[in-house]
Amino acid sequence: MTTPEKRDNPQAAAAQHAAAVRETAETSDEAVSQDTALTPPGTPLSRALFLLLGLFFTGLGFVGALLPVLPTVPFLILAVACFTRSSTRLERWLLAHPQFGPLLRDWREKGAIPRRAKWMAAGGMALGFALFVLGSQPGWPLIALVLAVMGYGLYFVWSRPDA
Hints:
This protein has helices spanning 4-8, 10-24, 29-33, 44-66, 73-84, 88-95, 101-110, 115-136, 140-159. By secondary structure, it is mostly helical.
């Protein structure tokens, strides 16, 4: 049951929840199997919607791990954000995942992206831009727009600290 303080200040409740999850999140299966009384803030309906979104993004992330054209970690970052608001257990599970957990924790704690991932993003964008220009013969305004959007994305990725 939510207290009046939690209803009046949802940001404080969310921060309190995130701190409690950080204290219990470990990189072992034991942390995932612990059944704690941590209930994310929000109404039951909002928690259910965030749970469904989190499961959807997790599915996209794992499909992205198998398909080279679909990113993995951005979807898992969205999934962790949704699980923060819906399921402490699934949030801890993703953060403790042996393959993706370190990347997710680096992003959550420092907003950091590994240098190798930055180079892969730059290469993927360059390849995608080349295929776009050569494959569709777009006009100059569309080329400029796509280049501007990709350039901003590249700027964002390279402006993050290295993990």
